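Figure 6 in text form: structure in, sequence out.
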């Protein structure tokens, strides 16, 4: 997207910019740095959903774009505003959804916009003039069924220890101290060293992501929210 305002300042926004890290034979980042230096009144907005890859592109001293930008994190939309928006969108089409169900949607999708929109679209199709509890349950069941074949393929793509770690984190919703004796006893994950290697692999495959919370603790999350909910729905049978 290119926009020119009255002051002739140009803005170029590039979404999912981190994918350039996967290109082997190009030096797009070097070309962009040159453009930043020689073209006046040009501003770039680099966006992406994979924070660790973006951080590497701009914070690695060996990368051309090192220290060329200001970092800004977009936080989740606050619940009250998002709940009101969901209710308004349903109401525009003569459908009513109670606040408690709008809240449940945000909880179930972990307030992630992609999953919120996906869930609401399916719920809208499933419901009549008013959303009821069984419409919510039906929507969840449809999501499980729609993705199940793909998720069983995921299971075949990783080792058994890696899958068990993924399932354990899904059941915990948010995992802290995954190599603790308490977690090991609860989910029978095996040696801490094996768990550590599994975490590294799952992070590298982007099946998990990690972040540091406000208390300075490292947290692990399942990247795909629907995958997490599907694992929770299936229960401990998936560990076998």
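Output sequence:
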């Amino acid at each position: 997207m290119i926009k020119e305002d009255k002051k002739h300042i140009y803005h170029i926004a590039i979404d999912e910019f981190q994918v350039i890290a996967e290109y082997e034979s190009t030096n797009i980042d070097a070309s962009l740095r040159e453009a930043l230096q020689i073209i006046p009144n040009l501003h770039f907005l680099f966006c992406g959903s994979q924070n660790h890859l973006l951080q590497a592109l701009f914070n690695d001293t060996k990368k051309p774009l090192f220290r060329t930008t200001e970092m800004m994190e977009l936080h989740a939309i606050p619940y009250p505003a998002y709940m009101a928006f969901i209710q308004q969108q349903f109401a525009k089409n003569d459908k009513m959804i109670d606040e408690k169900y709008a809240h449940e949607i945000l909880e179930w999708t972990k307030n992630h916009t992609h999953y919120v929109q996906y869930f609401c679209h399916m719920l809208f199709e499933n419901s009549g003039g008013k959303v009821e509890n069984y419409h919510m349950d039906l929507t969840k069941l449809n999501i499980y069924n729609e993705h199940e074949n793909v998720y069983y393929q995921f299971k075949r793509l990783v080792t058994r220890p890696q899958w068990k770690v993924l399932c354990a984190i899904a059941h915990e919703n948010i995992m802290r101290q995954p190599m603790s004796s308490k977690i090991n006893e609860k989910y029978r994950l095996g040696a801490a060293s094996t768990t550590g290697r599994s975490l590294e692999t799952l992070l590298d495959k982007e099946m998990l992501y990690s972040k540091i919370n406000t208390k300075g603790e490292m947290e692990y999350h399942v990247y795909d929210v629907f995958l997490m909910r599907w694992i929770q729905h299936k229960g401990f049978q998936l560990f076998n």
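Caption detail: The first strand starts at residue 2 and ends at 4.
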